[in-house]
Amino acid sequence: MLGVLIIVLSGILGAWLFAAQNQKQVFYEASVDLAPGTVLEASKLTEVKANLPNPERYLSPAQLTKDTVLKTAVHQGELVAKSATQVGSELRSPIVISLGMPLPASIKVGDRVDLWQTRVGDNGATDSEPILVAKNSVILALPSKEKGFGIVSGDKVEIGVLAADIKVVLSAANSKSSLSLIPSGE
After folding, report:
1. For the residues 154-158, what does the mean pLDDT come to?
2. Which 8-state DSSP code applies to residue 110?
3. What are 42-79's pLDDT values in tens digits?
4. Distance from the CA of 81 to the CA of which of 55, 128, 130, 161 falls in 20 to 30 A?
5. Is the domain defined by 23-87 classed in CATH 3.90.1210.10?
6. Residue 160's beta-bridge partner residues?
């Protein structure tokens, strides 16, 4: 009789441990590529159930607020880490610029870039050294087509710039100059 009781108790304990191991929690994963400065909304995220070893590291639906902002890029399919978010931020304003030279294909949404301006004279030649217009801007959207040799085609790119840089970026974008985006060293 004691043997049967031990077998039953070990079965119950095993089932309880198995159930405890398989308790899944709900987390958010990015449904699209998300750039730093993006205000997180449920429409840009997908709820997924997972059993993670460190669930406190990831954003759950209960923790999403209307002013949760990304500090770093989160790519489609990645879980949103709490360390990648903050409440409020130096929000970036989206500005579409036309580039004078193509972007490398390695540039992707969320990458940080520096915006450079080269002034072009009436004869079409550059008439000054390149000027750094805005440091550490963020790629928000890219052209979707690709040319050969790893070059992204299309000349319009949407970048996110800090409020302090808006005036100088708009001035550069509306001048007779060639704009270039270079991957940021920061």
Report:
1. 81
2. T
3. 899 999 998 888 889 999 898 888 878 888 889 999 99
4. 161
5. yes
6. 94, 138
Over the Cα atoms of the chain, what is R_g?
Answer: 24
Question: pLDDT tens across 176-186, in order?
Answer: 888 999 998 76
Contact 120, 178 (CB under 8 A): yes
**Nearest-5° Cα angle at 115, 183 to 74:** 50
104 to 10, 85, 145, 147, 153: CA distances (angstroms): 61, 28, 12, 10, 9
Rounded CA separation 108/110 (Å): 6
Domain with CATH 3.90.1210.10 in the chain: 23-87
Amino acid (1-letter code) at residue 157? V
The long-range contacts involving 78-86, CB below 8 angstroms and separated by at least 24 positions, are 78/29, 78/30, 79/27, 79/28, 79/29, 79/48, 79/50, 80/27, 80/28, 80/29, 80/30, 80/40, 80/45, 81/57, 82/56, 82/57, 82/58, 83/57, 85/40, 85/59
